[in-house]
């Protein structure tokens, strides 16, 4: 599978957390959508640069990863609710496992997501860490 | 619309079936159902096959034609139905709709998955989630359910032991099911000491990697007694969609698609949860079994853990859950599961479930989920 175009296409979203906001209902989406599922044809979406600040809604420690992520296991994944209301699935990095709990405030960091695959492309994007 | 009946069912043994190919398994299941229905096979007018990912598991697409060919069913129309792990439930529903509408009279709905021809099926299973915004971030499929489990523990005080008990009950039932992949009993302690997969879920919270197939034969209810003395009637066939990504749900502890499909099914059957005598739920992970018990309306939200602990879902409990052993212990060949659940309820209603028979069952339900709840299918059947 060619990852090159697929990775390139999502660079603004993955590097800078660009989402969408519906000007009709005010709801914020990440990833970006081209249709507001609430307002449909009446909705009007525009891009929004998300702050990258939020809190942990839930998390898991992955001890049995896929081959792609085996070098970093065990690692923590979480669903983070951003300040703007959208929720994202992400890895949590630079952590002290004792400090990870539901409700903890986190912030986005820019990291390498995946090693180069067959086509030599390294994927970068967002992860989150506990806010001091 | 016409009422629809099931006149034949079949399930291969589930497990690591090294000596059986994809086409062998589905043909075996189809032949079994035809024999069970007392028909020749020539009466069949259409086939619907549930299959999640033959393309990724055995590099074969266009499986409907392959199956029609190998089952000797050409030239009847065959279609593959895909909705991740709910593919089987949707193949059943498509068959029901074809008969109910009058488009076809006798139809076979089947399901199949060959999962053990790949070394690591984890990436294939992860494709049931949002590949771009979940899997590519590094989450595994078990970790998505683990995050639901952790949130349920946080919101309702559900315990690790309560989740483990769900697996223990499944295995107790499977120990009496000759078609089950893991027909042996386990203890809560064994679950709690099994390998950690994605905290807080351990290996014995997870359904296995399985090969297998299952099939059912449907016909108009008014014709069913021509073929069998114990037709099983379809009282409701419901399906609902939810968000593909777990993070987009309003709640991380409710599967809206289950709630919506169940509501439609109860309305269609003019029934309530208390009318259901037994249910086969989609426990791909122990937490999803618990969520199903709540979201199908058998207990209030948040009370699933206590209900399981107190024995409500045991085979002799108030609402027997997964008499077959469930996905956990009967096995979970993804596309076959929704059909295997149906076969179990049919056997239970007919009184043919052997040592795991529930006494005097009159109404049964199946609950089949795709992904983390992007799709749900709920069916109600009666004698």
Describe the structure in your own words.
The complex is a heterodimer of chains A (132) and B (383). The radius of gyration of chain A is 16 Å and the shape is globular. In chain A, 9% of the residues lie in helices and 42% in strands. Chain A is mostly beta strands. In chain B, helix 4 (87-100) packs across helix 13. Chain B starts with a strand and ends with a strand. Chain B has 383 residues and is α/β, with parallel strands linked by helices. Chain B has two domains: 4-120 and 210-232, 3-Layer(aba) Sandwich (Peroxisomal Thiolase, Chain A, domain 1); 136-207 and 233-382, Peroxisomal Thiolase, Chain A, domain 1 (3-Layer(aba) Sandwich). In chain B, strand 10 (363-370) and strand 11 (375-382) form a beta hairpin. Chain B has 13 helices and eleven strands. The model of chain B has no long low-confidence stretch (mean pLDDT 98). In chain B, the strands form two sheets. Chain B has a nine-stranded mixed β-sheet, sandwiched between helices. In chain B, strands 5-6 form a two-stranded antiparallel sheet. The A-B interface holds A 10, 31, 57-69, 72, 75, 77-79, 87-91, 102, 113-114, 123, 125 and B 120, 122-123, 126, 130, 132-134, 136-140, 142-143, 146-148, 150-151, 154, 195-201, 245-248, 252. Strand 4 (53-62) of chain A pairs antiparallel with strand 5 of chain B.
Sequence-ordered SSE layout with sheet pairings:
The complex is a heterodimer of chains A (132) and B (383).
Chain A: H1 4-9, H2 11-16, E1 18-22, E2 28-29, E3 45-49, E4 53-62, E5 75-82, E6 87-93, E7 105-114, E8 123-130
Chain B: E1 4-11, H1 22-36, E2 46-50, H2 54-57, H3 63-70, E3 78-81, H4 87-100, E4 107-114, H5 122-126, H6 141-156, H7 160-174, H8 188-193, E5 196-199, E6 201-202, E7 211-220, E8 232-241, H9 256-269, E9 278-280, H10 286-295, H11 304-309, H12 326-330, H13 337-350, E10 363-370, E11 375-382
Parallel strand pairs in B: 2-3, 2-4, 9-10
Antiparallel strand pairs in B: 1-7, 1-8, 4-7, 5-6, 8-11, 10-11
